[in-house]
Design brief:
The protein is α+β, with helices and mostly antiparallel strands. The protein has 13 helices and 10 strands. The strands form 4 sheets. A 3-stranded mixed β-sheet has the order 3-4-5, covered by helices on one side. Strands 6-8-7 form a 3-stranded antiparallel β-sheet. The protein has a two-stranded antiparallel sheet with strand order 1-2. The longest helix is centred in the C-terminal third of the chain and has 21 residues, at about 305-325.
């Protein structure tokens, strides 16, 4: 790894940690004082340009003072950068208490300052085997259905084997049953989520058995499906909620009065839909993530002025922070 790549990794880790606190753009002074990262303007500009080109961070300011904000899509990569610096598989941040806890070693190159605590909590080897430092590979709808159905039939017992036919009886996977059995089970086996015992006969006769990693992934899939449909209340009297609502009104007014903006009517409709969802007394988790947060992020991508980039990214950061701290949505 080159010194530049290492510096970029440290900046990414700092962006990830800072995301857990009040919304702001990390500038050179913040990086130096709060995270012990002192880079030349040329290096910081180059890192900002790379992160912006990859779509994982936005850059605000000019060549003399660059500020960066991590985008939601960049969270997994930034967390992976933090993990790589400690050589661990898990890491957590308590921003209010100024604590970072991980299962690796915090060296001098880990971003931070003297006011923070860095604690190592070792996990057992068996736990570490089942934790991936990067985001898990996405499963297709069929693979996820096969995995969660296997979990439901076996009650998550990794000692139990079942015939693939038992899964087929529980759900309809379409016309090409043999195809999904071959493709989906092979893929789940390659990911270490499922063990397969071949048997004479048709594909439906082979035995399926969950691994411990498969149990954890099935539970995560079930939890995700449940939480997406969950309806949560929005407290309109909460000061943070009101600040976000006011920022939406201000951005809409700016778009309405901006005659230079391309596809102006479309963007007006987008921000008004976001506002309509946010003004509700309650909202589905899926609508909050897609109809509000991702819509704001998409709107930012479609506008190019410094005002929109800054205002919309700060708005997205505020919504993400509100969802995490007030609604318990990661």
């Amino acid at each position: 790894m080159t010194s530049f790549e290492h510096a970029e990794r440290r900046v990414l880790a700092a962006l990830w940690i800072d995301h857990h606190g009040p919304q702001r753009a990390l500038d050179p002074d913040n990086l130096r004082v709060d995270y012990g990262i002192d880079l030349t303007p040329q290096t910081l500009n180059a890192i900002g340009a790379r992160l912006k080109a990859r779509g994982i961070a936005a850059v605000i300011g000019d060549n003399t003072s660059v500020g960066m904000i991590l985008k939601p899509i960049g969270f997994p990569e930034a967390q992976a950068a933090a993990l790589s610096l400690i050589g661990g598989s898990t890491i957590m941040v308590n921003f209010a208490q100024k604590e970072v806890i991980g299962d690796g070693e915090f060296g001098d190159d880990f971003p931070g300052s003297s006011g923070w605590k860095y604690m190592t909590a070792k996990s057992s080897p068996s736990q570490r085997r089942h934790i991936k430092p990067h985001s898990p590979v996405s499963l297709t709808a069929v693979e996820s259905k096969l995995l969660t159905t296997t979990y439901a039939i076996t009650n998550g017992d990794t000692r139990q084997t079942i015939e693939a036919r038992a899964v087929m009886k529980r759900f309809n996977f379409g016309d090409q049953t043999s195809g999904w059995v071959i493709d989906a089970t092979k893929e789940l086996r390659s990911l270490g989520l499922l063990a397969i015992t071949p048997r004479d006969g048709a594909d439906e006769d082979q035995l399926l058995q969950l691994t411990q990693v498969g149990v954890e992934r099935a539970l995560a899939a079930l939890e995700s499906a449940t939480s997406a449909a969950m309806i949560i209340a929005l407290d309109h009297n909460d000061p943070e909620y009101q600040i976000i609502a006011a920022e939406m009104v201000e951005i809409e007014a700016k778009i309405v009065s901006d005659n230079r903006l391309e596809n102006k009517e479309t963007e007006i409709a987008r921000i008004r839909l976001v506002r309509a969802l946010w003004d509700q007394a309650s909202i589905r988790v899926e609508d909050l993530k897609i109809g509000v947060l991702l819509a704001v992020d998409d709107l930012c991508e479609r506008t190019s002025s410094a005002y929109y980039n800054s205002a919309l990214l700060l708005l997205a950061s505020a919504i993400t922070n509100f969802a995490r701290t007030k609604l318990g949505i990661g």
